[in-house]
Amino acid sequence: MTTRIGVVTFPGTLDDQDSLRAVRIAGAEPVSLWHRDKDLHQVDAVILAGGFSYGDYLRAGAISRFSPVMETVIEQAKAGLPVLGICNGFQILTEAHLLPGAMLRNNHLHFICRDQKLRVENAETAWTSDYTAGQEISVPLKNVDGRYTADERTLDELEAEGRVAFRYADVNPNGSLRDIAGITNAAGNIVGLMPHPEHAVEPLIGTGRTDGLGFFTSIIKKLVNA
């Protein structure tokens, strides 16, 4: 049976089509999910794509967190459903308290768009198993509210439990504490990161490399071997 991976579209989502294409390139069946529909249509995993849902009104992800689809995503994620939050999707995951911490305005107060080098810190999650710990990859980064923050106790817990999934390498582009670019929950089924792996899955576009494809092949292998 083909692995089915859903991609949620909220008002203001920009990168849903890119994420659907990345899923297709990796070899799974992409399934479009609408924010007002609680039914996940029997998908095996969910991606919350990047963009500016609801125009980032109030806070990035603050309104989307209460969309009907998120009721089901939260419930099933807590039960083990693999969920990947990319950029705005990461912001939604923190607002939904599926991942700890919060995202603040970049420390330089400007939108940033660049290719970003990352170091893989945890290659044992459902979304990162095709990488190796310490591996450096390059994927596009584009955000204005990308500065990860949390209290010291939470940061220490993330470090101690190996839940920092990615760090910015070479340069910290937004002031994120401890250079954190992405994190995971304790079970490893939920991952959030600010950079965009869906824009680095084929040589023709994005960085011209395929460093982001491992996110999508990782989850397919995880589900196939479950």
Automatic annotation (TrEMBL):
Part of the phosphoribosylformylglycinamidine synthase complex involved in the purines biosynthetic pathway. Catalyzes the ATP-dependent conversion of formylglycinamide ribonucleotide (FGAR) and glutamine to yield formylglycinamidine ribonucleotide (FGAM) and glutamate. The FGAM synthase complex is composed of three subunits. PurQ produces an ammonia molecule by converting glutamine to glutamate. PurL transfers the ammonia molecule to FGAR to form FGAM in an ATP-dependent manner. InterPro entries: Class_I_gatase-like (IPR029062), PRibForGlyAmidine_synth_PurQ (IPR010075). Pfam families: GATase_5 (PF13507). The keyword ATP-binding applies. This is Phosphoribosylformylglycinamidine synthase subunit PurQ. The gene is purQ. Part of the FGAM synthase complex composed of 1 PurL, 1 PurQ and 2 PurS subunits. SUPFAM superfamilies: Class I glutamine amidotransferase-like. PROSITE patterns: GATASE_TYPE_1. It comes from Streptomyces pratensis (strain ATCC 33331 / IAF-45CD).
